[in-house]
Write a structure and sequence with these properties.
The complex is a heterodimer of chains A (835) and B (152). With 835 residues, chain A is an alpha/beta fold. Chain A folds into 4 domains: 93 residues, N-terminal domain of TfIIb (Single Sheet), CATH 2.20.25.90; 258 residues, Rossmann fold (3-Layer(aba) Sandwich); 222 residues, Dimethylsulfoxide Reductase, domain 2, CATH 3.40.228.10; 149 residues, Beta Barrel (Barwin-like endoglucanases). Chain A is built from 26 helices and 28 strands. In chain A, the strands form 6 sheets. A 7-stranded mixed sheet of chain A has the order 6-5-17-16-15-7-8, sandwiched between helices. A 6-stranded mixed sheet of chain A has the order 23-25-24-27-22-26. Chain A has a 5-stranded antiparallel sheet with strand order 2-3-4-1-28. In chain A, a hairpin with a 2-residue loop joins strand 3 and strand 4. In chain A, helix 2 packs across helix 21, helix 3 runs parallel beside helix 21 and helix 9 runs parallel beside helix 15. The longest helix of chain A is centred in the first third of the chain and has 18 residues. Chain A is globular. Chain B is an all-alpha fold and 152 residues long. Chain B has one domain: Ferritin. Helices cover 80% and strands 0% of the residues of chain B. The chains are: A alpha/beta (835), B mainly alpha (152). At the A-B interface, helix 18 of A face helix 2 and helix 4 of B.
Amino acid sequence: MADRIADIWGARTPHAKDAPWPVRVDLHLDEGVAEADVERWVQSACVLCSNGCACDIAVKDGRMVGVRGRAGDVVNHGRLGPKGLYGSWQWNGDDRLTRPLVRRGGVLVESDWDTAMDLVVRRSRELLTEVGPLSHGFYTSGQLFLEEYYTLAVIGKAGLGTPHMDGNTRLCTATAAAAMKESFGSDGQPGSYHDVDSCDALFLFGHNMAETQTVLWSRVLDRLHGPDRPAVVVVDPRRTKVADAAVASGGVHLAPLPGTNQALMNGLVREVIANGWVDRDYVDAHTLGYDELAATVEPCTPEHVAETCGIDPDDLRRAARIFGTSDRVLSTVLQGFYQSHQATAASCQVNNLHLLRGLIGSPGSGVLQMNGQPTAQNTRECGADGDLPGFRNWANPEHVEQLARLWNVDPATIPHWAPPTHAMQLWRYAEQGSIRFLWISATNPAVSLPELPRVREILAREDLFVVVQDGFRTETAEYADVVLPAALWGEKQGTFTNANRTVHLSERAVEPPGEARSDLDIFLDYARRMDLRDRDGAPLIGWHDPEGAFEAWKECSRGRLCDYTGLSYDKLRGGSGIPWPCDEDHPDGCDRLYADGVFPTHPDVCEDYGHDLLTGGATAPERYRARRPDGRAFLKAAEYAPPPEQPNEDYPFVCTTGRTAYHFHTRTKTGRSRRLRGAAPEPWVELSARDADALGVREGDLVRVESPRGRVEAPARVGRGRDGVVFVPFHYGYWDTDGDRHARAANELTMTEWDPVSKQPLFKLAAVRVTKSADGTGPAPAPTTTASAPHDLASVPATRGEDDVREDVTSADPPAPPPTPDRTPGVLPHVAPKG
Amino acid sequence: MHLATYLGLLHHSLTTLADAFRQVGQGHGDEPDVWHTCRVLAGRVEHEAEALAPVVRRYGEHREVEPERLHAAGLGSTRSGAVGLLRDLQDLYTLASLTDITWTVVGQAARGLRDGELLDVVTSGEQETARQLTWLRTRIKQAAPQALIAAD
């Protein structure tokens, strides 16, 4: 048995380049439950990180009692991470929401569905009559299923006609989508996890994969422990486990000051160009914008960049050389870029590096613009975040017409006069009182949004009617006018799609508690009670269950890059996940996109006409057409600009925040898992050894971190990060504490400011000051197994769990990768210029 | 030669525009994107004005008396609320449009004079102005429906 708290990634199964990743099946059952006691195994996939590992849920006496990886799945080959093993099912305790709550005399009291939904529908109708649909906002999650997102999108866009729909995905994955739209013309991950098995070099940009996607990291570790290991390069201001691995692999750890990613990336691009590592034939045939990119990065010499970023210029040269001279390079990007300054610009530079060398769409060469949540891809493709369903372009009248025909509504109903409202703007409208009905589903903005004091004020506004739909009584639910009890994972059926486009079916294993209903049923109930109808007077929503919603979505996706028409519940049942596009001609899905260097940039198919990366100004359609992209990718350029907040005399440190291995989102589920909670029970503040020394702070001392917006008080971890940078883990809220309620969450400190293109808030660079408030009584409650490890490892007891996971390294054949098509479905080919 | 006069107008327009961007950014600090973008753009417009300065000095030797009417009026003060934001962005748009067409006029003269140095300044200035107008149009389109229909 294995202790997967102490050993996050589990036993190694090393393998050589191009050999398939071996199978290892992880199993964890509740104490006192033996394998023979399990009555049923129910197919699902984990929703506690963007990996989406396939698993089976163990059921006994109507309860979830354990979980097991699915050996035959392309994503995880049987493995599960600590969150999947311990956090995905262990919350089914007795503190769930089981009945609707309504506010009476300022207090939330138990009610029934009719009363609660009547209140919702009455307020909704009133505001539609008084003000119109612009009074309505929907703030969703990365935790719903595809069927729920699609249904909500149709209700909002075709039923009510509001552009104000966005989600928590704007906090995690919006930049991934934005960067792919800017470079390739459409959202849609070009790369595949199989590229880990075949690459010669692996670049992780702002991506602490060891903690955020533990199973994918174990895949990397298995390459690093095998023969012909890849060189790893990581960009991260913290000394993460990934950074340690990079150094050990002969690669490079680049630790730029938070907020300077774009400077660093321009430097890398310049080195690749200056050293002649560009594949000119590929660039000429398949891209646009080379001259402008080359001119923009020309001044970014290694010395110049090194000074801006606070790094060694030779490290930058070495990293560029690895990128420029390796035959196969895989790059991954995550929150260190997405939640930082010039997020989209910096992420586009990663795409540029691959385009410059023509390293895209072949084994071992790809880009993975990652997600933070496992169903984030679904909200993007279904249109429940700031997009139109099926990667359609809001500025393309024909795309809007397609949706109007599909839904049988007037095209004028579908909001497309401006980009769909992004989450931060949605909250601003609520703050100003023009959004007066806000429906929050399966997310916890009172902990997850930036600048929490402001968010609390908005949620508490008298003139804002707040509906909260969740499984638990979260910090956000406390502000609601109506709380709707929702079924969670394992209690409802639906599909979802992970970061590399792999679609999984998650079956219902147990009944939801009390009167809780699936999010789908709640949305369908709202549509019915609102009597939403199409142009012919028929009900707008013509489906009644998850499979019906899936079938409807398939039609919406037909012919688009995210084509699901070749999938069905039956096809997903029993076997492995299948990556879209999956249609009649590609029944097994597609492993990689763009093998032929042809991208969905044709004006008739592209999802977006692009933006100025510095300001977010939108490119006019006629200007886009005039460039005749016709299948060529864009090499987008932007100069580095200093971040909106920098350290100063009053606030001399940069505070960066992030997720750690043992918790997910706002800990609603993971904080209720005994094992995960034990590993990281309380928040902490990480300081470099030198900074701690200068501040007179020792391991475990209580420190106060203050920004112009708020404060956090927590014990100090004297860690291994770079000087001048403080790390605070998000998202510790206050549902599980009796102390000072508003001094725990990292987002008390962060700023209301966002990337101009993706509109993703900046969580990684608040200016703060740090002071010691009291002596400690022991080490900080931070794990020793992760990037939060202490500077002096021997001074703190090791983080441990129990030997309660069985790892079965079998000789079973790993699943075969799906095929990579010669030509990507849904992409129009190059058109030869006339004349 | 009237080029000096027009260079004066352009230079003055640019400094007025830079001030106006700063003013709108500060006046709408509760709109973080407006605050930050206006600040970034103000810096870049100032940079354009600096780039123009040597040319202004060169032609300034022949400068005629600048007609009073040839200058851009700046913003008095910023407005408040959703509609106020919209109006202030429109004022910026008007000022940026003036510099846009003035770059065009000066660019034509530069071509006529075969003044390569001036033409380089004009080309880069035109690109910056296009960026300003694109952002302003995008932001105005975003703000208009909510301000005119749903705001108090």
